[in-house]
Amino acid sequence: MYQTIIVIDEFLDFVDDLRRRALHEDYESADQGTYFPGRNSKQPVYVKGIDQVISNLVGEKLTPSPGNSHGKFRVALEGDKGKGGVHIDKCDWSGILYLSKDEDCYGGTDFYRHKVLNSDRAPLNQNDLNAMGIKSFDSFWHDYLLKDGLDEDKWTLQTHIPMKYNRLILFRPWLFHNAGLGFGSDIKNGRLIYPLFYNRSVN
Length: 203
What we know:
By secondary structure, the protein is an alpha+beta fold. The chain has a domain at 5-85 and 92-108 and 163-200: Jelly Rolls (Sandwich). Helices cover 18% and strands 25% of the residues. The protein is built from four helices and ten strands, in the order E-H-E-H-E-E-E-E-H-H-E-E-E-E. The strands form two sheets. Strands 1, 2, 3, 4, 5, 8 and 10 form a seven-stranded antiparallel beta sheet that branches. A three-stranded antiparallel beta sheet has the order 7-6-9, with no helix packed on it. The longest helix has 12 residues, at 137-148. The two termini are 23 Å apart.
């Protein structure tokens, strides 16, 4: 037995301060966009004590995952495009704190089941690969995830977590998931989030 998705509302007492910080950060230019629609702030912003709070919530000691956009604000506006679609993250826990105001919020985060693989998550071991009829993790990555990520016909929506100001969602990164559409005309009314990525501590 283990947790897969945790939703917490009214997460930060000082969320308005964090949002103001996000509004005044420097962001990547449009031609430096990441794999997914939208842009990340150039520098991460770390909230004191948040790693311990999240560790307590999931019941595991966590440390920020290297190589991800941990702590970098992300804004996605209406019409923003990217090469990525349904995907997984390379870590042990993923988190998203929504920073868009409630009057602007649209969509959220969606979790899917792959129709052919008949699974809502990536294979984690050889037994999973065998059950899915896949020869290798490399085959899973290239022949299914990358190939089917943007093909809506290959997926069935399983769970939708609506966007709400100061709502934190924590989830297992191997669940097939995707962000909702970008919205708004600028950072003040756009899809604004504070993403977090963690690994289990080995100590």
